[in-house]
Every structure is written in C-alpha cells, then in structure tokens.
Amino acid sequence: MTHAWHAGRRQWLVRAAALGLAGWMGAVSAQSAAGRGDGAIRLALIETLSGPFGNTGEAVFRNLVWAAERVNARGGIEVAPGVRRPLQIVRYDSKGQPQEALSALQAALDDGITLIAQGNSSAVAAALIEAINRHNEREPQRQVLFLNYSAVDPILTNERCSYWHFRFDAHADMRMAALMSVLKTDAEVRSVYLIGQDYSFGRAVLREARRQLGLQRPDVRIVGEELHPMARIKDFLPYVTKIKASGAQAVITGNWGNDLTLLVRAAREGGYDGKFYTFYGNALGAPAAIGEAGIGKVIAVADWFPNAPGAESRRFYEAFRQRFPNPADDYVHMRMQLMVEALAQAIEAAARVERSRDGMAVLPGAASIARALEQADVTLAGQRLRMRAADHQAQQPLMVAVMDRQGAPGVPFDVEGSGYGFRVLQQLDAAAAEQPHTCRMARP
Fold it and tell me: Quick one: which of 3, 119, 129, 297 is 20 to 30 A from 149 by CA?
C-alpha cells in the first residue's frame, strides 16, 4: 500500500480516537473492511466530513456507529440460522458537493459496497438518486440501495421518487406543518420574515411556509423573504439588519449547520428580539450561539428531542451521553437509530425469503432488501417508525419544542453543554404528521 494511504489512515485513526475505545475499534474495523471481504455487512456513509459543515457529518457518523454497535451487541444481522454478520460503517467524504458525492459513490462501489447512506443536502441526495437509478438499470447484478436520513426536499419522495431510495426523516412539508401547529396559536406573531439557503431544500421550505401561512394564519404578514448562498456567508448581520427593519416578529428558516449558527449569533449580536421558528435550531451550536436571548423564542421541530416525555426516552438519551460523554459530541438522532434497526430487520427478512426460495445462505441483494424495507416497522425507546411503501417516506411522530434553561420544568437535559435545552410544546402522532404524496413508483 502507498505511503499516502498509510498517512491518510493515520489521520483517520486520530479522528476516530475521539469517539472512545469501543467506537474506535468499531470504526477502525469499518474503515479497514472497505478493502477486505471479511464477512461484514458494510454501510457506506457518504457525507460532508470536512469544511464548514463537517460537524454535521461527524454527528451523523457518531449516530451510525452507535446504532451499529447496538446491532452488533446482539450478535449482528442474521443471514441464516446460526449465521450472523456484523454491521460496519465506512466513511466517504463528499465535502458537501454533488460531484464529490458521486465520486464517493463510485469509490464505495469499487470497494464492493451496495448499501449507501446520506442525508445532509437534498442537492447531493438528488444527484445520488439519479446516479443510483442509472447504475441499477445498467448493472442489475450489482444494485445499490440508498438510505436517506436528512435530505428533506419533498420532491425526493414525490416527483423524483425511486424504488432504490428510502427517506427516514420527515420531509420539509411535514416539518413545516408541525411548526405551524404551534405558530397558528401564537397570538404574539403577526408578521414574519422568511430566510433560507439558496438551493432546492431552502426554496422548498420558503414555498411551503408561504402556502401554510396562507392556510393556517392568513392574518400573518410576510414582511420579507430572502435566499442566501449556502455555506458562503460569514457575517449574517446585514441580513439581521433587514429583518429588524422589516418589523418581523418572527423568522421562519430551514437553515442548518453553520448557516443557522451564524444567523442566530448575528441575531443576538444585532439585538433582534423576535422568535425563530426553525427546522434545526435545537443543536449544532445554535443554542449556545444565541444564549439567553433564545429562551422562549427559538422553536424547533424534530422526530424526537432529548427531553421527550417518558422513561424510555430518558434512558435512551442517558445511554447516548454515556457512550459519548464529550458535550461537543451531542446531537443524537432517533431516526438514524431507527433507520439502522429497519435496515437490519429488512436484511434478515429478505434473507429468509431468499433461503426459502434457493435453500442457500446468501446476503440478499438490494432489490430483495428494498422489498422488505417497504414493510419496515420498528420501535426504539418508545418511538415507532414505519415505512410507507407507496413513496418510501417514513411515517413517525413529530415534536415541536422551545428553548429554555436546563433545569426548568420539562428540561432535565441541555444541548452540547450549553446550559440550554428544549421543552416539548407539541407532539403529533404519525397519523397527524402524515402528508399526501404524488409518487408514481416504478418497481423492477
């Protein structure tokens, strides 16, 4: 192997060490498995692992490592009676760019991996779906399955739905409807400013905000609307100045990662005292960035929050904090844990079907796993997720929560050691969160 390979591996091991000994061992095994057919079932994570949004990809990696550890602690995934195989996560850096993600997809294919996970960026997800569709048509003996945990542009399970793509996050319209369930009763808000990242997801959020405001709060005026370049703005103060000048009593944004953190920090520094209705304001630096000014004013929607009611939920979060005790490593995603559980369930179900047909213990192909994944129904820590076969959009409860001090009623846990957490205001069951679709699924 080349000197460059060894140097790159040493760099990776230094990063992996921060995950703790158990995670280090699992991650090292996952990374080295890319070049060895050692019997593991490998899931390729194609994600932004460097640059200004690198922290979002690292948060995903921690979640998937933890989920894989849970699967492996019970012996792995059963592919035949008495035969179980471990699940391993292999990292590929997309740098947040569609072209880099396509190169990473090819690298994963070259390594023999046909299970792909990605989520941070709907633009990247759209490029991967298109490439995987072409690949699977061209190479039916080596088909690929795409698990999406965060790319929430609604079009991905509507007009561009694909048999090979499964989304485990609530899409933007579902999230917006959940936010509106709180905003429609917020009498303090009579005017709003819409701001988002200038790409497919950001545009979808603003479009749906306009539509749902018209339905739920026609009395609320939209006093400003702005799209900004993604991951390029270092100083959001000029945007905050415009928001203040508009007289908006609230901001609605789908911003995520550094674009959200810098926006809320600029709002604090610029003296904006309105509310923020957000998709992702509950972590990755946002609560610490806005501080006391966010109490009662930063509202977020998610499939789950650390302060979700119930003993099962509390034990789940405490287990994550024990596994990753560094406050900077916070931001656990329930849906990612459920996604991995659903994948394990689907592989086992597909393997049973193939054994009954062929009488052999083989790892099922992507088409067989997809057929089983369409029936996925998994529960963890009291949170249930089921897959809707018609469009491959996961159905699950959603929650809306507001920022408060740790220790306040309903806020036993803070976020990232900031001293601030999120108190659940509203819980929508899966039926209430469900939205219609326009998918016309083409099945092999």
Answer: 297
